[in-house]
């Protein structure tokens, strides 16, 4: 029962990660080349954080008492990375066309 509660809570508290996932999906569908691969990094980092939380709390339920904050912090970091990538891509394409 604890695992089911953890999965439901993780789904609920993962809502702050949705903009990163949607932004990554958008970049994956619109961008080409190396930009596409680099745009996946924020989603991969978030996936690693979620998997680490699940594994660690399965071994010790008290190891990540503030896991919702971890997801929120890594989501903010992921959005910042996507923003910097978007700016860098825009500057690169703008300079290449002029």
Structure commentary:
With 98 residues, this protein is mainly alpha-helical. The chain contains five helices and no strands. Helix 4 runs antiparallel to helix 5. The longest helix is centred in the C-terminal third of the chain and has 31 residues. The radius of gyration is 16 Å and the shape is elongated.
Task: Give a summary of the structure in a few sentences.
This protein has 98 residues and is an all-alpha fold.
Question: Helices, strands, pairings?
Answer:
Elements: H1 2-13, H2 18-30, H3 34-38, H4 41-59, H5 67-97
Helix pairs in contact: 2-5, 4-5
> What's the total number of strands?
0
Structural category: mainly alpha
Q: What Rg, in angstroms, do the CA atoms define?
A: 16 Å
H/E series:
HHHHH
The percent of residues in helical segments reads over 70%
Shape: elongated
Number of helices: 5
The fraction of residues in strands falls at under 5%
Runs with pLDDT <50, length 5+? none
Q: Describe the main β-sheet briefly.
A: none
Q: What distance separates the N and C termini? A: 60 Å
Mean pLDDT score, rounded?
87
Salient structural properties:
98 residues, mainly alpha, 0% strand, elongated
